[in-house]
Amino acid sequence: MQDSTLLLIMRSWSWNPLILIGLGSVAAGYAYAFYYFWRHNWLERLVQRGLIRRSHPWYFIAGLGAIFIALLSPVDILADMLFLMHMIQHILLMMVAAPLILLGLPAPFARWLILETRLKGMLTWLTHPMIAYTLLYANFLTWHVPTLYDAALRNALLHDLEHALFFYTALISWWRVIDPTQGWFPMWRWPPARWVYLIVNAPPNYVLGSILWASSSVWYSFYLEAPRLWDLSALQDQRYGGMLMWFQGWMYIMASMIVFFIWYDPEREQA
Amino acid sequence: MASSLMIMTWPGVVRANGGTILLVEEVGPYELTVTASPYPLQVGTNDVNALVERLSDQRLVLNAQVQMIVEPLDQSGNPQIFLATHDTATNKLYYHANIIFPTSGQWNLTIKVDGPEDSIITTYKAQVTSRQSVNFLRYVSLVGLPLILIAFLFFVLSRRARELFNDNSESEDQ
């Protein structure tokens, strides 16, 4: 790869003002909530009770950072030229940003936000594991139908809708695994429930990734017309994108192992 | 929110990140890809971008001089020359220029590339339409707007939390 190509790519940022304002607003709102709690001397009490931890803001900022990188950095620019970069963009939204934002939400914030918006009933239904799983993969697989995928690449509004749905269905899917409310949204009353739920998230990614990898024709005509980078043909690009979907499936397996080792307690089982 | 609305309706804000492909052509030693936004081209300012690749090895040509020349098809006006550079492009691999069409009708858009191997020239016949009203939906970000809403909820939460927290504290004391 030419050095100058890489330098020019690193300088290519899409400064969508609404996304910038959105991310900035959420960060400011989150910081203001912390400040407000501190000013009224509640913060220390909640920290002592373990309801707010020092790690919360870092997770939240990292989640917003992942959205920033996915939608505003050269990743977004290159996603218009390479299928594999588009897959990286989706992984950032679904597998990095969504869980980090939930991990960064302290239980008091999450509970009061839900009470304030009166969304507990709807969230209970929406985040039910079967419904969340169905929504996530119905959305995921639908957007990978060639007609719709090509249309989204050619229409900015459809493309924004695609990214928004990927992110918000991922948030719903991760909700019960992480449960930012610490108790209002339990998984099934079965100790390995979270572990099993994460494992069954892997196969759809493996299946679609394998189909794309093994295909001898290019699924998405947009990439046949797009300029090629780095000597990658459209078919090679599609194959690498398929492999990245395997990686997404592998991330679910890794998450299930983390859940298993952190949350599974043999001594509690014996008791 | 007010600034978001202002940005959404601001005329002439164009994003140089590609757009619709106008032509993909092999000319001399190069392959030239030209994109434009909006499409169809309109009276006023339009994003036009060109990507130059070497045919022999598919490598990008990043050090060419690229000019975009617009002239009415009936040659009733003087040609206007726009220098296309990487600096103003969102995707810096492209050469970008903000092309201004003063009137609607048929125009010749000529792309002239002075590259290290050769100089090439190609022409695209553009149908320029009257300026359409800004389609604000094009500027709506379906990620940004919900985030702004969530931010608003954080602010509301902070105010409401005082009442809820004081209520909880009183019941604990009792």
Task: Compose a concise summary of this entry.
The complex is a heterodimer of chains A (271) and B (174). By secondary structure, chain A is an all-alpha fold.
List the SSEs and their pairings.
The complex is a heterodimer of chains A (271) and B (174).
Chain A: H1 3-10, H2 17-39, H3 43-48, H4 55-72, H5 74-79, H6 83-103, H7 107-117, H8 120-126, H9 129-143, H10 146-154, H11 156-178, H12 193-200, H13 202-214, H14 221-225, H15 234-263, H16 266-270
Helix pairs in contact in A: 2-4, 4-6, 6-11, 6-15, 9-11, 10-11, 12-15, 13-15
Chain B: H1 2-9, E1 20-27, E2 30-37, E3 44-54, E4 65-72, E5 80-84, E6 95-101, E7 105-114, E8 119-128, H2 144-173
Antiparallel strand pairs in B: 1-2, 2-3, 3-6, 4-5, 4-7, 7-8
Can you offer a commentary on this structure?
The complex is a heterodimer of chains A (271) and B (174). Chain A is mainly alpha-helical and 271 residues long. Chain A has one domain (11-270). Chain A has helices at 3-10, 17-39, 43-48, 55-72, 74-79, 83-103, 107-117, 120-126, 129-143, 146-154, 156-178, 193-200, 202-214, 221-225, 234-263, 266-270. The longest helix of chain A has 30 residues, at 234-263. Chain A is globular. Chain A starts with a helix and ends with a helix. The model of chain A has no long low-confidence stretch (mean pLDDT 89). Chain B is of the alpha+beta class and 174 residues long. Chain B folds into 2 domains: 12-133, Immunoglobulin-like, CATH 2.60.40.1930; 141-173. Chain B is 22% helix and 39% strand. Chain B has a 4-stranded antiparallel beta sheet with strand order 1-2-3-6, with no helix packed on it. In chain B, strands 5-4-7-8 form a 4-stranded antiparallel beta sheet, with no helix packed on it. Mean pLDDT of chain B is 79; it is low at 1-17 and 170-174. The interface between A and B is large, with 54 and 53 residues.
